[in-house]
């Protein structure tokens, strides 16, 4: 049985791919004191082991994963990329450029000083900066002919050098970046919670969607609970924790508006977190059981911001939102949870999660954009045409000074993804790609590509470790740590960023979601996520291009 399985794996690249994906995902889930490698590092490790023992993965499947991953990177960044450039872009662009430039110069310099083999500097940059799109762009630049292959070297060997250097430096890149981000505030004696509190005027822990345990309860108001005060005052006290969604006086339902006042004896329905009722149950009045009041069912809907009239406005400035009978329980930007405060500015493709009576959902749609739950299918026509267009754009060559220049598939796919993503933010019915579908395509594409990288690099990993392993590890440490320190100094002294926001921006500039989690935990706030999304929109584009450029010097 074992022999038959091994023979199957040796003859079927598809079987090897999915075994590596499964084992890698399992490896990535193992944690120690809250830290885990994650699926990318897990798949890379599994691929290295299988590659070392002579197993292979289909090149076509790896290319398929590469195309999906790069296109989805552009698609996800498209709305925010344009918005950030037009609004608060200069600071985040400068931060992303400083991080990328520091890493680029260091990787190129280390490659020259340590006499690394051709292609290794590109792998060093990608691994130490923990940016897989840099690796993908570098290997594509070689395969497409954009980057020349040095005399005396085979194309396959240089491509393998890129992957092997990436594999060796990536693991420290992940762990090292987390350690630097974790201990830098300690060394600088920075009180992150206090710094985050300067920007976070809301309840830092109240907008974690997974933490909400929402229930509805009916009460007859007592004499001392917000009587004769407008509902706006009550809503401002607990904007993401509790909301009055119904009120009845003398048998007649009241129309709830911001200036509506309540009186003793009014019967109300409150939608809120269980913790709110535990803390305030005795203050509100007598709880009642009333089928009429509690009859309407509540639903949860994700609403995507696309209405031009609200984009660029603060949540607190949108009058139509101030007295909807719904509870705003979460907000995500580029799939990253961000804090809900009255001062948070809405951007294209922000996703707001509301819970409340079903009849209010249509009102929310008219105010903000469209309800995500209405979009359950992917626009495969636009998706397919976008990828073909990206590959086509990447194949065009321009001759400059006798040298043929081309974007390559990575550059073309990135541009196509950015374009489709931005057009989708302007016209929500175009290029539908629901959040779960985007996550699946992007994650699966990335892991398929990483499985191929690991298997291909595994064949030479032992020899490379023996000959250049120590040099690569030391170079990786430098390329991981120095850009963080340079960016922090630049952000504080030149850009005047708040430390919590700056550290979030640095993790975004290095596209490290794991490091973002470290900062949000340390600051006890989601404020760093705002910096992350600002820099991440630029970093993915800049570092992808850097993967091709470093091979040209």
Give your account of this protein's structure.
By secondary structure, this protein is α+β, with helices and mostly antiparallel strands. It folds into two domains: 2-193 and 381-552, Na+/H+ antiporter like fold (Up-down Bundle), CATH 1.20.1530; 209-374, Alpha-Beta Plaits. It is 59% helix and 12% strand. It has helices at 2-11, 13-29, 38-52, 59-86, 89-113, 120-128, 132-144, 155-187, 192-199, 231-237, 274-284, 319-322, 361-368, 380-395, 408-426, 435-458, 461-493, 499-509, 513-523, 527-549, and strands spanning 31-32, 35-36, 214-221, 242-249, 252-253, 267-273, 285-288, 298-305, 327-333, 336-337, 351-357, 369-371, 397-400, 403-406. The strands form four sheets. The chain has a five-stranded antiparallel sheet, with helices on one face. Strands 10-9-11-8-12 form a five-stranded antiparallel sheet, with helices on one face. A two-stranded antiparallel ribbon has the order 1-2. Strand 13 (397-400) and strand 14 form a beta hairpin. Helix 4 (59-86) crosses helix 20 (527-549) and helix 6 (120-128) runs parallel beside helix 8 (155-187). The radius of gyration is 26 Å and the shape is elongated.
Question: What are the salient characteristics of this protein?
Answer:
five-stranded antiparallel sheet; alpha+beta; Na+/H+ antiporter like fold; Alpha-Beta Plaits; 553 residues; 2 domains; 12% strand
């Amino acid at each position: 049985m074992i022999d038959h399985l091994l023979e199957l794996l040796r003859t079927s690249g598809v079987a090897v791919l999915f075994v590596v994906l499964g084992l890698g995902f399992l490896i990535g889930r193992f944690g120690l004191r809250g830290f885990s490698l994650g699926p990318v590092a897990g798949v890379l490790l599994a691929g290295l082991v299988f590659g070392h023992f002579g197993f292979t993965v289909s090149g076509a499947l790896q290319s398929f994963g590469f195309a999906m991953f790069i296109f989805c990177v552009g698609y996800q960044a498209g709305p925010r990329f344009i918005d950030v450039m037009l609004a608060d872009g200069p600071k985040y662009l400068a931060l992303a450029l400083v991080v990328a430039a520091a890493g680029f110069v260091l990787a190129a310099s280390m490659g020259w000083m340590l006499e690394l083999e051709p292609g290794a500097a590109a792998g060093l940059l990608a691994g130490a900066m923990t940016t897989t799109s840099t690796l993908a762009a570098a290997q594509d630049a070689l395969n497409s002919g954009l980057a020349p292959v040095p005399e005396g070297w085979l194309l396959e060997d240089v491509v393998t050098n890129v992957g092997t250097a990436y594999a060796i430096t990536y693991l420290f890149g992940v762990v090292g970046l987390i350690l630097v981000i974790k201990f830098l505030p300690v060394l600088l004696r920075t009180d992150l919670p206090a710094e985050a509190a300067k920007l976070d005027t809301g309840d830092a822990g109240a907008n974690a969607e997974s933490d909400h345990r929402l229930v509805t309860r009916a009460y007859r108001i007592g004499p001392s609970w917000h009587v004769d005060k407008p509902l706006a005052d009550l809503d401002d006290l607990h904007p993401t924790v509790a909301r009055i969604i119904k009120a009845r006086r003398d048998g007649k339902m009241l129309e709830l508006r911001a200036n509506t006042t309540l009186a003793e004896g009014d019967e109300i329905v409150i939608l809120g977190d269980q913790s709110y009722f535990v803390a305030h149950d005795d203050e509100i009045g007598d709880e009642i059981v009333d089928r009429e009041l509690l009859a309407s069912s509540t639903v949860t809907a994700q609403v995507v911001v696309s209405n031009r009239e609200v984009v660029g406005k603060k949540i607190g400035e949108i009058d139509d939102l101030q007295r909807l009978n719904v509870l705003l329980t979460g907000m995500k930007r580029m799939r990253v949870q961000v804090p809900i405060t009255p001062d948070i500015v809405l951007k294209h493709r922000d996703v707001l999660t509301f819970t409340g009576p079903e009849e209010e959902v249509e009102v929310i749609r008219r105010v903000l954009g469209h309800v995500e739950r209405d979009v359950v299918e992917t626009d495969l026509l636009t998706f397919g045409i976008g990828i073909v267009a990206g590959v086509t754009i990447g194949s065009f060559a321009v001759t400059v000074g006798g040298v043929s220049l081309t974007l390559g598939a990575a550059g073309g796919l990135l541009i196509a993804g950015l374009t489709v993503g931005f057009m989708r933010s302007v016209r929500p019915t175009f290029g539908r790609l629901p959040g779960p579908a985007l996550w699946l395509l992007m994650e699966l594409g990335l892991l398929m590509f990483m499985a191929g990288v690991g298997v291909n690099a595994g064949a030479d990993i032992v020899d490379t470790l023996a000959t250049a392993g120590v040099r690569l590890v030391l170079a990786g440490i430098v390329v991981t740590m120095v850009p963080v320190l340079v960016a922090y100094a630049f952000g504080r002294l030149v850009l005047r960023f708040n430390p919590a926001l700056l550290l979030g921006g640095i993790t975004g500039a290095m596209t490290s979601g794991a490091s973002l989690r470290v900062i949000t935990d340390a600051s006890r706030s989601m404020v760093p996520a705002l910096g992350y999304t600002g820099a991440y929109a630029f970093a993915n584009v800049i570092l992808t291009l850097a993967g091709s450029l470093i091979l040209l010097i």
